[in-house]
Design a protein that fits this description.
The protein has one domain: Periplasmic binding protein-like II (D-Maltodextrin-Binding Protein, domain 2), CATH 3.40.190. About 45% of the residues lie in helices and about 20% in strands. It has helices spanning about 5-10, 20-25, 55-70, 70-80, and strands spanning about 15-20, 30-35, 45-50.
Length: about 100
């Protein structure tokens, strides 16, 4: 597991950690909070922010929504995965 990364996050020396969801969830039993899950990835990656870092979480969520709304996400997805994103389910609000 990535104990050192999560200890550094909890100590406030990192702003966020991106990791596999099962691993990330195992570290949220302390003072860390799973901020969201990156949609449409087979590996189920998630973003973890220190609890109370709502400003960063909200900024990341806003940026993700913006790139989806302006078509940037779809262009990148098409370029790198060769698939159309029109059939993708809507991203859920990740404030859990």
């Amino acid at each position: 597991m990535n104990t050192e990364a999560y200890q550094t996050l909890a100590a406030g020396k990192l702003d966020a950690v991106v990791d596999d969801v099962p691993i990330a969830k195992s570290f949220t039993k302390s003072d860390l909070k799973l901020a969201g899950i990156i949609p449409n990835t087979e590996a189920q990656y998630g973003l973890v922010f220190k609890k109370g870092n709502d400003k960063l979480r909200d900024a990341v969520n806003y940026a993700l929504k913006e790139i989806q709304a302006d078509g940037t996400f779809a262009r990148f997805y098409q370029k790198w995965f060769g698939e159309d994103t029109s059939m993708m389910p809507d991203q859920q609000d990740s404030k859990s």
